[in-house]
Write a structure and sequence with these properties.
The chain is an alpha/beta fold and 387 residues long. The chain is built from 15 helices and twelve strands. The longest helix has 19 residues. Bound molecules: pyridoxal-5'-phosphate (PLP).
Length: 387
């Protein structure tokens, strides 16, 4: 079956009421018919729900769908995207190991690598996403994992997944890809040869800014270890949030089509604006990795960034002039959201580090929503006009 059909027709067991739409299973534990059944389930001789930290029908439905949509063998859902990313790293590394990561990764992923892993003797190196020819020189005898994000948040760097998978295989690394910006509808890293894919389901997968969630998907033998880690340390997704996210997947394809056409239209509209130095969007021919984006993504995604000529001051003025669009830290919502990373999310990062990951002083990130494109463009135009 095709993507849209799998996203709608993959359903967990119905209850005895024979409801058409999956119900919510808000239960912390499950009952057993006998001591023998209980023993067999705990011994993992039989499959079934025991306790919602281990599994729950709503989480299983969300995991089954995401597995099919990403082309994975197994998946584990988590309470947030960060819980997923943490759970996709820790089970595979030990003291003395080294992780190679793209420099352009989400801020909290960067913090895991720089603030926490070193405490346990796990070192890291950062690689420039635009200079993959230099990556081989960063490999050490103890390098175990390659961690990357494409397109990256917020700079929209693109890394060639086919190349990355070959590189990882050649150096015997686990290739772990944060696929949050693309969603499984636009890009499937596992199909290019990645070993693990993570998502913050909080973003486009939920798509309406309601719940937090995450997921780790990949090869069976790797996900077994992630599941065991989750069972013991407890980053479980709640049944209610899993239900919301599974329902959201039913409309992911149709929503992403609109996010992408709106985003591309906005990007093209802004290209020649006199206050803007540069517009970034993976499907603009001016993007440095346009050819790679076209090869591995179905459409260009729902996020556009642009650089205002007047730096920090114009960035703040622009946000203050916005009327309809939301100023919010989230993205992937049906409502268009604008942020100015240099004065907000990345204001505590020193300028040199910010610039090295493409966060210039005038950079504005727009998560393009599902409103009519004319209204989105009009708000941005009037906000620029008043600067
Ligand atoms: C938001 C985000 C995360 C973290 O997800 P949470 O659900 O907020 O924990 C990770 N990676 C990327 C690319 C993100 O945008």
């Amino acid at each position: 079956m095709k993507f849209e059909t799998l996203a709608i027709r993959t359903q967990t067991k119905r209850s005895q009421e024979r409801e058409h739409s999956t119900p919510i299973f808000p239960t912390s534990s499950f009952v057993f018919d006998s001591a023998e059944q209980m023993r067999a389930l705990f011994a993992e001789e039989e499959e079934g729900n025991i306790y919602s930290r281990f599994s729950n029908p709503n989480c299983t439905e969300f995991e089954d769908k995401m597995c099919l949509l990403e082309g994975g063998e197994d998946a584990v859902s988590t309470a947030t995207g960060m819980a997923g990313i943490f759970s996709s790293i820790i089970p595979f590394l030990e003291a003395g190991d080294h992780i190679l990561a793209s420099r352009a990764i989400f801020g909290s992923s960067y913090q895991i690598l720089t603030n926490y892993l070193p405490k346990w003797g796990i070192s890291h190196s950062f690689a420039d996403p635009e200079k993959t020819e230099s990556w081989a020189s960063l490999i050490q005898p103890n390098t175990k994992m390659l961690f990357l994000e494409t397109p990256s948040n917020p700079a929209l760097d693109i890394i060639d997944l086919e190349w990355a998978a070959k590189f990882a295989q050649q150096h015997n690394l686990i290739l772990n890809v944060d696929n949050c910006f693309a969603t499984p509808y636009l890009q499937n890293p596992l199909k290019w040869g990645a070993d693990i894919v993570t998502h913050s389901a909080t973003k486009f997968i939920d798509g309406q800014g309601r719940v937090l969630g995450g997921i780790v998907i990949g090869k069976k033998e790797l996900i077994d270890k992630v599941r065991r880690f989750g069972r013991q340390t407890g980053p479980a997704l709640s049944p209610f949030n899993a239900w919301v996210l599974s329902k959201s997947l039913e409309t992911l394809a149709i929503r992403m089509d609109r996010h992408c056409t709106n985003a591309e239209a906005l990007a093209k509209h802004l290209i020649n604006h006199p206050l803007i130095n540069r517009v970034n969007y993976p499907f603009l021919e001016s993007h440095p990795a346009y050819g790679i984006a076209k090869k591995q993504m179905k459409m260009g995604g729902g996020v556009v960034t642009f650089e205002l000529k007047g730096g920090l001051e114009y960035g703040k003025k622009f946000l203050d002039n916005i009327q309809m669009i939301s100023l919010s830290a989230n993205l992937g919502d049906s409502r268009t959201i604008a942020t100015h990373p240099a004065s907000t999310t990345h204001s505590k990062v020193d300028e040199a580090t910010r610039l090295s990951v493409g966060i210039t002083n005038g950079l504005v990130r727009v998560s393009v929503g599902l409103e009519h494109i004319d209204d989105i463009v009009a708000d941005i135009e009037q906000a620029l006009g008043k600067i």
